Amino acid sequence: MSKKDNDKVCKIDLDELGTLPELLDGKHHVIPIVTAPDELPEEVSIPEVMPILTLRSSVLFPGSITPITVGREKSIRLVREVNARGELLGAVLQRESDVEDPAPDDMYKVGTAARIIKILEMPNGNLTVILNGLEKIEINEYLTSDPYFKASVTPLRDTAPDAKNIEFEALVDSVRDVALGIINVSPNMPKEAAFAIKNIDSRRGIINFICSNLDLSDEDRQALLEAPGLLARARKLLEILIREQQLAELKSQIQERVKEEIDKQQREYYLQQQMRTIQDELGEGADGEVEKMRAEAAKKNWPKEVAELFEKEITKLERLNPAVAEYSVQVTYLQLMLELPWNETTRDNLDLECARKQLDHDHFGLDEVKERLLEHLAVIKLKGDLKSPILCLYGPPGVGKTSLGKSVAAALGRKFGRISLGGLHDEAEIRGHRRTYIGAMPGRIIQTIKRCGSSNPVVILDEVDKVTVSNHGDPSSALLEVLDPEQNTTFHDNYLDTEYDLSKVLFIATANNVGNINPALRDRMEMINIPGYILEEKVRIGLDHLLPKQMEAHGIKAGELAMSPAVIECIIAGYTRESGVRSLDKHLAKIARARAKQIAFEEAFAPEITEKDVEKILGMPKFLCEQYEVGGMTGVVTGLAWTEVGGDILYIESVLTPGKGKVSLTGNLGDVMKESATIAHEWVMAHHAELGIDPALFEKNDINIHVPEGAIPKDGPSAGITMVTSIVSTYTGRKVRERIAMTGETTLRGRVMPVGGIKEKILAAKRAGITQLILSADNRKDIAEIKEEYIAGLTFHYVKTNEEVLKLALE
User: Fold this and answer.
1) What's the CA angle centered on 296, arms 293 and 299, to 5 degrees?
2) What would you report as the CA-atom Rg of the chain, rounded to the nearest whole angstrom?
3) What is the structure's pLDDT at 804?
4) 238-291 confidence digits (pLDDT tens)
5) How does DSSP assign 306-318, residue by residue?
6) What secondary structure does DSSP assign to 705-746, as a single string?
């Protein structure tokens, strides 16, 4: 028998079953767990007061013989005195096994009356006491605790059901079967226990045997002991055994799966080792791959620090087993280092005249951008070196911001790369992922440099204003290092994990809305505005660039398709509403497809495309030309507006109705435009005497201010002086002069403030047939930027106050 700590029950060794006389003679070290095969336990007289032996662990059941190791002084004295007097004792389990000196509250109330069969002296001074459980008892009250516990008890006899009780018989059979099942699947249970269970005929004995010997917790054993009668104990035991059986089966399944997985890994490792041996024999193994990479590294012109890092990483690769996952990760990293163009650059084409011709050939207009790039080339030519500035081209869609990058690359003779930032929300897309992550890869900057194959390409950062912030970080903040010429010499990519020099790269960013760009990022870039093309420029672009491109794309030869400037202008005015030429390009492609069909079907056609042909191919015009429609009317004034697709004219209308002085605004106006209307009305009311307006009109009439095309949202302050003019015209009855338009912001002091979009507004006014324009004096500088031929026939009036506006606009 094996021994545990003091007062713990020893485990039964079931190598062989002996009899009680043999045990007492000391010939065997085994204990039969049941005393007799009969159904009724021994009749004993339980005294009213009994000494109580506290057990640290396990529970003594009636009818069982169990060895107990006794080590506490109180317990040793109790056992010796009880054995000397031939008395009975009560064996009670304490609630917590680690309590050294338990109090009455630390012990359960139900235990077992027992007789001492034998006491064995142990070499360490402890005693092994063999107890025979007789009958359950319940402790009523502890009487003394010194020299050991004594308590008044009440016997609780285990009532056995009738011998013919079918339920009890079925429960006993089920308990036997489940217990055998647990022994079969549990590796810790001795198989001899199954032999004992099969050979115990007593139903009381089999229940108590299983309760005592199966590996159950002390709480479960105590609950079984406290069960009221054998039938209740059998039910409780079956419930616990089914739970233990499910747990044992689950453990067995897990162990089987783990064993299969380990076997699979060992098999794969063995096959990988065989494959590696075969590859080594053929000269295609890992060693050959390492030598090949070392040979490539010897040819690289990279910094000393990078060379040392490569040697460190390839040494690490040599120590790795090719079968492990980290091996392929390491190989991928080293291949990236070899593929990056460290200090490998292309030679810039510094022929400035050639560069100018290239830029002019690819793009019409964009003079400011071209001049800026030519300045950059001039400095490189004179100085031999220049940290690449970061240019940001911003403007409406379709004006050629992205395609300009290709022209710049062609003019400089550099490689070209493009990075689309639209919708980017993960900082790792810029800086890369750390190699510790599964599926890690370098950021887009390093990937583009690798793809270009040189360290000085032209890289377009497209849609930099559409970068979004998420819980993965702010990509625009990661771009700060990329786009700062003072910092990007030591750009750090998380995957590459070393510094890379981006100072030779010419970055060109593009954006539609500058307001959406991170302010710190915007401060690092040189902003260049591309406001859009005027009608005349679009006609030139359509004839000189877009039409030849579409003819070539559709296989149409020279002489098979031609257009006059008037037809191109008709397409622009009637079918497109944009600042750029993207929509014009699509419509010219549609016309080219129609002509290609005629050529393929060998139909008769005239090479020249007329306006009727355009209407037949493209359908009815989608937009009406903005033509001046009012003149000499009261309360209706022509204003000028800027839209994302260019300039336009709009009308401000006002009318008086009987009321109480209410001001209503209609026409889908934004907050800023509503405030402009309020300011204009308040200014008119404040200056009614100078304007000759009867103040009673303000109290007896409501005024409605309307801006037509109510479905289109409108906002901005530039209609301020237009609203002032309309309100004054309505209150005074003075008519507005013909063919005059205006734009400008007003204040409560009557001052006329400058506004933006002057170029687009003036060109829209000219297309509409306007001859006179009223502008703020501060907008005079904007007129100087427009070519003379585009503003011929227009008269400009520059004003500073509302009074000057009214003097010019009203009859």
Assistant:
1) 150
2) 50
3) 93
4) 888 888 778 877 887 887 787 777 777 777 777 767 766 776 666 555 566 788
5) HHHHHHHHHHHHH
6) EE-S-TTS-B--STTHHHHHHHHHHHHH-PPBPTTEEE--EE
**What does the alpha-carbon distance between residue 316 and residue 308 come to, in Å, rounded to a whole number?**
13
The pLDDT score that the predictor gives to residue 675 is 93
Check residue 619 and give left, alpha or beta (phi > 0: left; psi -120 to 50: alpha).
left
In tens, the pLDDT along 278-329 reads: 766 665 555 667 888 888 888 888 888 888 888 888 888 888 777 778 888 8
User: Nearest CA to 314 among 336, 335, 290, 346?
Assistant: 290
- The tokens of 768 are what? 């509409």
Residue showing tokens 């937009």? 623
Strands of 344-455 (E only): list them.
Answer: 391-394, 416-420
List the beta strands (DSSP E) in 409-543: 416-420, 458-462, 491-492, 499-500, 506-511, 526-529
Residues in the chain: 811
| Per annotation, catalytic residue among 476, 718, 726, 729 | 718
- Per-residue pLDDT reduced to its tens digit, 76-105: 888 888 888 888 999 999 888 888 888 888
CA distance 743 to 758: 9
Give strand ranges (E) for 284-412. 391-394
More confidently predicted of 629 and 254: 254
Structure tokens at 88: 């009975």
The active-site residue out of 370, 538, 759, 761 is 761
Measure the CA angle with vertex 554, ends 552 and 555; round to 5°.
65
Of 634, 670, 668, 679, the residue nearest 654 (C-alpha): 634
Q: Which two tokens stand for residue 51?
A: 């000494």
- The residue type of 677 is A
CA-nearest of 685, 692, 723, 730 to 707 is 723
Three-state SS annotation for 482-532 = HCCCCCHHHEECCCCCCEECCCCCEEEEEECCHHHCCHHHHHCCEEEECCC
Angle between helix 720-732 and 671-686 (nearest 10): 40
Distance separating alpha carbons of residues 562 and 568, to the nearest angstrom:
10
Say what the pLDDT of residue 35 is. 45
Cα distance between residue 235 and residue 212, in whole Å: 16
d(CA 71, CA 75): 7
Residue pLDDT, tens place only, 465-474: 888 777 767 7
Instruction: Reply yes or no on whether 136 is catalytic.
Output: no
Instruction: For residue range 522-574, list pLDDT tens digits in order.
Output: 888 888 887 777 777 888 888 988 999 999 999 998 888 999 998 998 888 88
Amino acid at 414: R
Please tell me whether residue 763 adopts helix, strand or coil conformation.
helix
Tell the residue number behind the tokens 């739970």, with chain if given: 243
CB 391 within 8 Å of CB 507? yes
Segment 735-745 shows an average pLDDT of 91
Residues 6+ apart with CB under 8 A from 443: 428, 429, 430, 431, 432, 493, 494, 495
Buried b (16+ CB within 10 A) or exposed e, 115-128: bbbbeeeeeeebbb
Q: Print burial letters for 757-782: b (CB count within 10 Å at least 16), e (below 16).
A: bbbbbbbbbbbbebebbbbbeebeeb
- For the chain, helix, strand, coil in percent to 5 are 45, 20, 35
- Residues in a beta bridge with 510: 393
Beta strands in 530-594 (DSSP E): 562-563
Q: Given the structure tokens 């009614």, which residue do they identify?
A: 688
Q: What is the DSSP letter of 436?
A: T
Element (H, E) at 156: strand 150-156
CA distance 329 to 439: 9
Q: Please indicate whether residue 761 is annotated as part of the active site.
A: yes
Upstream peptide bond of 147 is cis (omega within 30 degrees of 0): yes
Q: Based on the number of CB atoms within 10 Å of its own CB, is 789 exposed (0-12), middle (13-18) or buried (19 or more)? A: exposed
How many Cβ atoms from other residues are within 10 Å of residue 582's Cβ? 15
What is the number of other CB atoms lying within 10 angstroms of the CB of residue 549?
A: 14
- Dihedral sign, Cα of residue 791, residue 796, residue 801, residue 803: negative
